[in-house]
Amino acid sequence: MVPLSPLINNIMRLRGEILCCIWLCLLQLSLGAVRHYKFDVEYMYGEPDCQEHVVMGINGQFPGPTIRAEAGDTLHVILTNKLSTEGTVIHWHGIRQYGTPWADGTASVSQCAIAPGETFHYRFKVERAGTYFYHGHYGMQRTAGLYGSLIVDLAEGKKEAFHYDGEFNLLLSDWWHKTIHQQEVGLSSIPFRWINEPQSLLINGRGQYNCSLAANLVKTTLPQCKFRGNEQCAPHIFHVHPNKTYRIRIASTTSLASLNLAIGDHKLVVVEADGNYVQPFTVDDIDIYSGETYSVLLTTNQDPKKNYWISIGVRGRKPNTPQGLTILNYKTISASVFPTSPPPITPQWNDYNRSKAFTYKVLALEGTEKPPQHYDRRILLLNTQNLVGGFTRWAINNVSLALPSTPYLGSIKFNVNAAFDTKSPPDTFSEDYDIYNPPSNNNSNIGSGVYTLQFNQVVDVILQNANVLSGKNSEIHSWHLHGHDFWVLGYGDGKFEQGDERKFNLKNPPLRNTAVIFPYGWTALRFKADNPGVWAFHCHIEPHLYMGMGVIFAEAVQNVKRIPREALACGLLRKVFINKKHG
Ligand SMILES: [Cu+2]
């Protein structure tokens, strides 16, 4: 064989090196950076609304630290449970966990609760830019304050669909003076004790219970708040320059409250919802339900010699909580100058037509992935309030969800059938069910069955609202799906009927992970079961989920690979793992 000349040899070597370089670069691009966070979860004293209470914090902070990453990055969160008597988990709300369903942070679904003193490693990719948050998903720990913001920026070199000069976060929540243990026990007692309305609304973990920032401007018996400025409950003031555009990232992690947010004298342009771009539209205020996120653009085009209120107020339930307030400060003047006009008035709580008008405006930006034109399976989910053995519960198609002690991801993957009800809950409900009256048969079953979806199946879910147990009322619920976005195909009043699908929007339905269902109405969603794992789909109102308002979807669980053993070593699986070790 004739040897290659040294020149050709060199060229070949060089080519090899270049290819190797390109390959490494591509690998780097596809892998992104790994961002490390160390989270110690604990109970601590805090004064979220100027009254001292025990709150859940992370690394001594409440709300928890803001996580910031770029699309394509891998987040590695080392979570240590520093609670002395209970487990914990953290759910990364809006992150789809492709390939890592065990990192979804949902106790009893994707993992075992992390025991006191133990450490768990969450490792997952944030594959899409957008506004997200994280929160506890065990018992009612979110209500206790276990939450924080999670912001994913575009990968370097990519451009947003809109321009802005600066940005800030508004993480919205509601706050009770009763501990979550008192709340949980009340909800599962006979007689039932409801949690009632929150004492305060918090903006970035800050509210004022015993005073009002706007006492001199509104009708109130509360005294004017006085701050030196270093109090934990002093409002978080947002400083802006005149004539600039700001992106405000808003997330609602409320336990119960549906909120309306407004900024005095300023318009808001909605541009993002749940991590997806939407067709921009301009409003005076936005409605935001628990589990939702939005980005709005604010142009600071008002009188720069004034400061302005940012206000949040309760909608959808008769409010008994004062507005949450903070100040938008034009840097041209001092931040301590209070606005001279009253805060924006929150729209009437039960003006549902106004709420619907806002919600219907949220449509996908052109270029957003369109829904498949047909579905393979339709699941109609009727929510009812029931009495089960004297306990007040929420049920879906007459099954009230009770989470098992063995996480579904493990029991399904390893065929531990005794771990949950192997009988699937029904795909529909009785056709003659009267949604306008309280349930005539108010008994229902407590269950842990799952809906098994075929891989890549297109699933339609029609959420159907109805009357509550006593009296004539139908409540707002906001439903959140783990592991996916869904297209919101439409909303309607009354009972969903055959033919209503003709009203579906298949042209530009918004992609979201949370959708509201209005009183006595229905909401239609479509998603593709393309993410192997087990995923909760539930009402994001914390006490409602606690009372059984959710279902479980399992899809292609056999395709899930590389589940860390510590995610699943509890309940019946602990024995399986121990036996394997010794067997
Ligand atoms: Cu609900």
UniProtKB/TrEMBL annotation:
Its EC number is 1.10.3.3. It is found in: Secreted. Pfam families: Cu-oxidase, Cu-oxidase_2, Cu-oxidase_3. GO terms for cellular component: extracellular region; plasmodesma. It catalyses: 4 L-ascorbate + O2 = 4 monodehydro-L-ascorbate radical + 2 H2O. Residues 41-153, 168-331, 436-557 form the Plastocyanin-like domain. This is L-ascorbate oxidase. It comes from Sphenostylis stenocarpa. The lineage of its organism: Eukaryota, Viridiplantae, Streptophyta, Embryophyta, Tracheophyta.
